[in-house]
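Deliverable D5.2: sample structural annotation.
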Amino acid sequence: MRTLKVVWGVAAAVSLAVSAWAQGNPRGTASLDLNGTKISVEYGRPSLHGKTVEDRLGELPVGEFWRLGADKSTTFSTSGDLVFGDVTIPKGEYSLWVLKDKENSFQLVFNKQHGQWGTDHDPSKDFAKIPLKVEKEGPAAEQVTITLEKEGDGGELSIRWGDMELTTNFKTK
């Protein structure tokens, strides 16, 4: 009986170690309370490790998705409806992805599935695609950094990595 307990204990410890190892990148969180609506993004933070964004994204081809972070998919949560341009995102949880629309043009994709591994994108569950503004300015970000900030009477979601910044504005409904 004692041997069985030791075996189960070792198995549990190995399982926890493997799980921690699989999530090899640190996690980040961005949050914002906008007019009583609580918004948050939880994401993996891969590093450039001396490479460029273009190197790390593998020269992402047009029409391909980037998991927007690392490891487990990026989760976007909102306690109220949000409006991005003319697209309404209902309250709830989504995974976020970036779609390379055309050369130097990207869209933020809200997917109804969330919590899956970051390479398991199911396009049939895509809910909305929002154009992203592309900028290359300011100091380079070694790790993927997502921020949510108040911007005028709404908010801004910003994704920075290397010398690239992708942004979009939104309002509460």
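Annotation notes: The chain has one domain: 25-172. The chain is about 15% helix and 50% strand.
The annotation will be released with the project's public dataset once the embargo ends.
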